[in-house]
Design goal:
Largest interface: A-B, 26 and 26 residues
Number of helices of chain A: 7
Strand order of the largest sheet of chain A: 1-7-6-5-4-3
Radius of gyration of chain A: 16 Å
Number of domains of chain A: 1
Distance between the termini of chain A: 30 Å
Low-confidence stretches of chain A: none
Largest sheet of chain A: 6 strands, mixed
Oligomer: homodimer
Amino acid sequence: MIISKQYISPVAKELLRTNPLANEAYRQIIQAIELNATELSGKFVINSSEKNANGVVPVKENIYARLEDEYGWFREKPLPYLVEAKKGGPIDVYNEFEQFKVGLEFETGNISSAHRAMNKLCVGIKHDDIDMGVLILPIHTLSYYLTDRVSNYEELEPYFVLLDEYPFIVIGFDADEYNPQAPILPKGKDGMSQRAIHKWKGY
Amino acid sequence: MIISKQYISPVAKELLRTNPLANEAYRQIIQAIELNATELSGKFVINSSEKNANGVVPVKENIYARLEDEYGWFREKPLPYLVEAKKGGPIDVYNEFEQFKVGLEFETGNISSAHRAMNKLCVGIKHDDIDMGVLILPIHTLSYYLTDRVSNYEELEPYFVLLDEYPFIVIGFDADEYNPQAPILPKGKDGMSQRAIHKWKGY
């Protein structure tokens, strides 16, 4: 896939410039997105035969699986603060680079869910449960061919101003190619391999 | 109704203490909530015969109607910044106290929608489109008897830490009484009077 749009907050910019651990985490995420492919050639080709043709879950799962398998990230990391408050689910994907803690969310729900995912990462940062938050979303052009109403980068963009004081990165990705003849990505859990995920609590 | 729980950010506290316009806006909102009643006696009695028995829209509409009719607030005020970005709907209820601009949202959707409403007010504040944001929600006990999955104060509470630097108030309200024999509040638009709302664009 292609990294098409990006928001890197001033604080995150400084981190990427000065902190090798932050930089390594960022590099791994970019890699996991860029290496996500539907073809052996390494290209991600999306079926563009009609609106909402493809499921978004396989896109997410492939990126998560690479972060787990290649780089040892964990799934479903509870945020101590939210656990204590008995509110809110875990962070999707999480890793610790020595002392530097990074949380990542790929929001496959609608735009309101994207707001919640963004706020969850911010609360984690506020409470020092994570040191950098990363949200990844399809750009609008790609989301048109994914599950109905999946949130996209541009929709959330007017709200990035709220992230200016947080170590926060938002990444908008796109397919390498659009082709009405390409295989359709299944919706829901259909067609997903039965691999066990690498949960934090199993650590 | 009763004001049962409240979050007033440090900035908002200072505003209420020093700015009579902010204080007047706040007073009007509190009044509109406290005077919301289902009985001529002035009490708000909720039907507590079963979970999700009542609709939440009448609760909202009565509060909004009072703000409009008694105090001249406006409905559906577009935020200039979001209009420019072509993203996001208007603020639910809005008024200007001389130069002091206040936006209020009553979120009747699920918890993700409450995150979006909160963020919308924050973006308005960041861009100086509003000077104070107010979010009102039922507390958990009351929401149990309202429309399924309507967001409640306690659910959003772990996220109030994100509001600390904003002039922001969150109000959690409750019914005066719970009674399994009380009239049921209709769901959806049923039973709502056909009054025309006082939209900002009609100003």
